[in-house]
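Troubleshooting log. The previous structure file for this entry was overwritten by mistake, so regenerating from the original sequence record. Sequence copied from the archived sheet and checked twice against the printout by T.R.
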Amino acid sequence: MRIPRMLVLGASVLVLASACSTGGASSPSAASPTIKMGSDGFYESKLMAEIYSQALEAKGYKVDRTGLGLGTRKVTAAALEGGQIDVKPEYIGSGLAYYDATKTTGDPATNAAALQTILNGKGGGITVLKYSPAADQNAFVVTKATADQFHLASLSDTTAVQAQLKFGVATDCQTNPVCAAALKTAYGLDLSSALPLSACDQPMVDALTAGTITVGELCSTQPDILKNGWVVLTDDKHTQPADNLAPLVRNDLLAKVDKAGFEAILNGVSAKMTTDALLKLNSEYVFDKKDIPTIAKEWLTANGPF
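Regenerated output below.
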């Protein structure tokens, strides 16, 4: 459903490329490979991948977006390890938990280092670039009416009344170590009959709004939470890891490009992305109905060059 980028952006891409072409990292050579960008299926991940893509294009790289919105982490991790994609934005805590949930912490630097150690041995080597100030934690949310009815403020409060609640969870919850297993261990919650939905996306919002579910797994930067006055249940047993964003890049790609210059582009984008900025961009997508390429271009124009 993605509109061809030249139709969406037109000449403005040329303006952005010109604006970002001075200073910073060097331009790629004509022999540089096309960058295969990937992302998870929900819109925030696709948005970050698009921002990284346009920043690279502004420096002269060619980007293949076939892998944007590829699927869950299980799909995109395999694609990155196998070389189907070269780069993807990752939430470092959840990314670490995918490989080893016992190593996740509330400290992003610790999570990034542990994830790097694991990825050194995957797919010929994958590099975790600098993580962003922007973080988006997994959040379990209820309407104010549900919170008032069952006296819910934390996830611990749901344990005694779980039979009266209908959970909506990420589509990979049953295999995701920070979802079903973690919540079972910490809170005694049985999510085997929970409704699987796209976690940080409109289907979860719609189900919570309609009452199809009473507890929904969203992301903490989901603009619907603020707009609707929903209640984020405190993860009082700390099951969810620190989830700052960072690009993951295959080492075989870095060997084919100007490594320092390439990394500088992506690290520069990450450094300027904050949680508040990400929330604003998500709001533009959800409520202003802007398309992802336009949101990305406007943010890069306002915050570049890189």
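The domain at 138-233 is CATH 3.40.190.120 (D-Maltodextrin-Binding Protein; domain 2). Archived copy saved in two places this time.
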